């Protein structure tokens, strides 16, 4: 996968951790000694942002061989990258690269678990992750969920149409069909997505012409009922299940007939453990 974090961002991560050099390495007098570092999976994981980790180590002053690209499923002990260079350069990059990999791989691994659970039931279902990333970490998070097999639900407010109840409160006297028509006139190339909280509301907006009904916090049983109701009333409408979806219930929502699962769960996933070995070359 292409890199998501440009060099100036990687440089800023290094500067944040090592603003004035590594005092310990300098004081010990070992900064210039030749060294070798390997990063490997300690647990089973789907690796993400290994390209950025490798580039970060390079920016620190070492030569790097990338051994596992983003999206690779690794077993314990499988290598991710190997680096050679001065001990000072490798010590500088060590923790930043490790932490970046651990956080991103946690996101990718949980994403892959959701994708696998849902597609075991419905092979064509899409898993879409929301824009609710940690502020400032969107590029990292989006690449990680894509490494896990998901797609972005919304990258931000600028490129999608998603009508919430909070929008509709300003349009109490406007019929759903007119709201949909207004959106199509303004931005005809976009799909119209409407979030609903109940079956009747979902049916009404589908009949009004919404392309996608985003069913917020529906149970799998409620999703199944909505899908059944739309088969005759609005068969072209896509049902997207959203809210509280993770590896444990993704299969149930897929079985219920949702064509898209919308989730934020990967962004708060536990980081995966990456083992670092660093010593003389």
UniProtKB/TrEMBL annotation:
A GO CC term attached to the entry: cytoplasm
Domain of life: Bacteria
SUPFAM superfamilies given in the database record: Nicotinate/Quinolinate PRTase C-terminal domain-like, Nicotinate/Quinolinate PRTase N-terminal domain-like
Biological-process GO terms, alphabetical: NAD+ biosynthetic process; quinolinate catabolic process
UniProt cross-references to InterPro entries, sorted A to Z: Aldolase_TIM (IPR013785), ModD (IPR006242), NadC/ModD (IPR027277), Nicotinate_pribotase-like_C (IPR036068), Quinolinate_PRibosylTase_N_sf (IPR037128), Quinolinate_PRibosylTrfase_C (IPR002638), Quinolinate_PRibosylTrfase_N (IPR022412)
Family membership: Belongs to the NadC/ModD family.
Protein name in UniProt: Putative pyrophosphorylase ModD
Organism: Rhodoplanes elegans
Top-level taxonomy: Bacteria, Pseudomonadati, Pseudomonadota, Alphaproteobacteria, Hyphomicrobiales
């Amino acid at each position: 996968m292409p890199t998501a974090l440009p060099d100036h961002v990687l440089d800023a991560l290094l500067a944040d951790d090592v603003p004035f050099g590594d005092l310990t390495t300098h004081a010990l007098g070992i900064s210039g000694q030749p060294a070798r570092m390997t990063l490997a999976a300690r647990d089973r994981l789907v690796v993400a942002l290994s390209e950025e980790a490798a580039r970060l180590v390079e920016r620190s002053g070492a030569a790097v061989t990338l051994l596992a690209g983003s999206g690779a499923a690794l077993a314990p002990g499988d290598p991710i990258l190997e680096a050679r260079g001065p001990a000072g350069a490798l010590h500088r990059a060590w923790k930043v690269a490790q932490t970046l990999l651990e956080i991103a791989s946690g996101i990718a691994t949980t994403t892959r678990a959701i994708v696998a659970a849902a597609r075991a039931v419905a092979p064509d279902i899409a898993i879409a992750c929301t824009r609710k990333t940690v502020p400032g970490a969107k590029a990292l998070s989006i690449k990680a969920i894509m490494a896990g097999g998901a797609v972005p639900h919304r990258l931000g407010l600028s490129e999608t149409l998603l009508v919430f109840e909070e929008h509709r409160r300003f349009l109490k006297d406007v019929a759903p069909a007119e709201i949909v028509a207004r959106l199509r006139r303004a931005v005809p190339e976009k799909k119209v997505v409407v979030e609903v909280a109940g079956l009747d509301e979902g049916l009404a907006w589908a009949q009004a012409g919404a392309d996608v009904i985003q069913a917020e916090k529906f149970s799998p049983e409620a999703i199944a009922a909505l899908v059944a109701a739309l088969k005759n009333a609005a068969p072209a409408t896509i049902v997207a299940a959203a809210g509280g979806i993770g590896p444990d219930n993704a299969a149930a929502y897929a079985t219920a007939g949702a064509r898209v699962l919308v989730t934020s769960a990967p962004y708060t996933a536990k980081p995966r453990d990456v083992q670092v070995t660093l010593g003389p070359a």
